[in-house]
Amino acid sequence: MRVNARFEGVAEQQVTYLATTTGLKVSDVLRDSVDFYYRHVRGESASGLKHFSKMIGQGHSGRSDISGNYKAHLSDSLAAKYNLQPAQTGAKADAKAKK
To answer: Which side of the chain, N or C, has fewer Cβ within a 10 Å radius?
Structure first.
């Protein structure tokens, strides 16, 4: 497929920077960018989380429930970091529902 696109302003600067920094042609930068965005939208870039999840529970946090409840701990940690309401999942959700 042949595409003719106009990049101006910030987008033009970004494409130029990427091409200059990587040594790639503009068409290669755009092709790689589309591939990256496609994988992101399709959720395939979340595969990095799959690799991350293999490491969970392998440290020395002093907690015995990390590998079994890592999603809840991760959710709580991200909620605290971004000042959001933590998701109610697993045992926490069950305990809250019983009240």
So the answer is: N
Tell whether 79 is covered by a domain: no
Domain count, the chain: 1
Is the Cβ–Cβ distance between 44 and 54 less than 8 Å? no
pLDDT at 74 over 90: no
Query: Tokens 């999942």 appear where?
Result: 89
The DSSP string of 4-31 is: -----HHHHHHHHHHHHHH---HHHHHH
Judge contact between 53 and 70, C-beta under 8 A: yes
Q: Is the pTM of this model over 0.90?
A: no
Confidence band (pLDDT; 50, 70, 90) for 62?
A: low
Single-letter amino acid code for the residue at 7: F
Rounded-to-integer distance, Cα 96 and Cα 99, Å = 5
